[in-house]
Design brief:
mainly alpha; 6 helices; elongated
Length: about 190
């Protein structure tokens, strides 16, 4: 899918790509190594997406949306749960008995989070920000995803300024590790 546009369009496109990755994982036979590779790809996408939201979307929600601090805190809590499941999945082989259970749990949590963002957060943000501000947020999110980590780091800061300082460095280290191990390729 093409990316671009305001922050809502950008993140909604990401959501559909994640839905597609879950469907591809589920279409593979249980225990198949392709499931492991697809979960690695899913992990990269979810982590980059989450980091970008934490760097730019949630601070904007706190600033512009009435009651935004509580909304942002709930979303950050959702991210922490998802990231913990990604970390648990990171070392499991596709034929591990816990693998499919964790993938199913992850899908449920991600689906609930996406539904909440798309049905509640995005409309509130759209009503609270100018189109120009939403466009700028979209640009910031796209830039953040390019340097964001690709592996889960549950103990890393998820709010500014810590996430903006440490995220790009962790992202660089993750991309080097990915290149050296061939993770997420083919």
């Amino acid at each position: 899918m093409g990316h671009g546009g305001n922050v809502i369009a950008e993140l909604t496109t990401d959501h559909r790509e994640v839905d597609e990755l879950f469907a591809r994982i589920e279409s593979q036979p249980v225990g198949d190594e392709q499931r492991r590779k697809l979960v690695d790809e899913l992990t990269k996408e979810l982590v980059r997406h989450s980091v970008a939201e934490e760097m730019y979307l949630y601070p904007a929600v706190r600033e512009h949306v009435e009651g935004g601090a509580g909304i942002a805190d709930k979303e950050l809590s959702d991210h922490a749960e998802v990231e913990q499941h990604l970390k648990e999945l990171e070392g499991l082989a596709a034929d591990d008995p816990q693998f499919d259970h964790l993938v199913a749990k992850l899908k449920l949590e991600v689906s609930e989070h996406v539904r909440d963002e798309e049905n509640r957060l995005f409309p509130l943000l759209a009503a609270s920000c100018t189109p120009e501000a939403l466009d700028e947020l979209g640009d910031q999110v796209r830039r953040a995803k390019k340097t964001a980590p690709t592996r889960p780091h549950p103990s890393a800061p998820d709010t500014p300024p810590g996430n903006k300082l440490l995220g790009p460095g962790a992202g660089l280290v993750d991309r080097v590790r990915d290149a050296l191990t061939g993770r997420g390729q083919g």
